[in-house]
Amino acid sequence: MIVSWIKSFSKPAEERKPLFEKLMSDSYRQAYQMAYRFTSNRVDAEDLLQETYVRAYRFFHRYDETMPFTSWLYRIMTNIHIDSVRKNSRLRTVSIDQGNPETGTTWEIADDSKQADHSLVSNSLDEPFQLALKAMTPEFRMAVILADIDGMSYEEIADVMDTSVGTVRSRIHRGRKQMKEYLQASFPDSLPEVSN
Amino acid sequence: MSNCHRIKSLLSAYIDREMTGEEAYLMREHISQCASCELEFEELRRVKHILSTLPSVEPSDDLLDQVKATVFADDAAPSISKKGIIVSTSMAAAMLFLTFALMQWIQVRQGGTNGLVPADEMVATDVRTVGDSASGAPVYMPVNLASAPE
């Protein structure tokens, strides 16, 4: 009886490990592309990728094998990334904007975000575009990346982001507009003509 | 043109071919006649083109091995989650306690053997105290309560 209780709380069955390992080997390069475009730097991309696979393996018993593995994986990745962005945003808001309410201390910190961004991607040929992606609203950025870099349909993106097709349409449009406006303001020569 | 605001909001869906044939036809008709919408259409098309042609970024050679090592790290040990350990330990402790209580109850029902005496038969003389010849401190000796002398 106790053995059955223990088994009910155990991690994915041993026989599922080889399957997960194969899916992981087949998908990690593509998943890394997503993680890199989401985070804009290699260190954060590797962390995001690792956390995504750890969580995916933990909940692998919930994966429906008739569905594309990458869609399920991206759903996990987008959730982790959004949580991380929100958490970092809250931390920044509390620590910089509010200061210490008990002592009345406030901090003045130089705005070096532009410099930091540049240092992260300064060796990259696609620097202007990666910076433009980084400047986008996270939800817009993820929808645009899934559509334009991974080539997903709006319906697939809606499934990954757990939202409606209408919301995806709006996010993609607003995301592209944000990117266009950023490039026009910061890198005016970076929008080449596209042949028909 | 009053229709421009709505047309512009649908430009990305038009570029992605995420609309019906009829909607796409109306969009195409409008864009061909409106310079403002045509300009925005071209700019958004460039943005999509840029993103879809970005060079792929290669992960480091050992990344897959590192991630695998982390993902499967827990498999080296018995594959039981923390929650599983807590629950199964609690269940085992509860079962041990119930077994012990049941044994005690059976023994009492069978007549108080193995040194068990009803509480009302216990008397003060059931504990003997003798002196320690080396230190002079009292030493308490265990006795069989059922056979203790009066």
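Chain B has three domains: 4-52, 81-116, 117-150.
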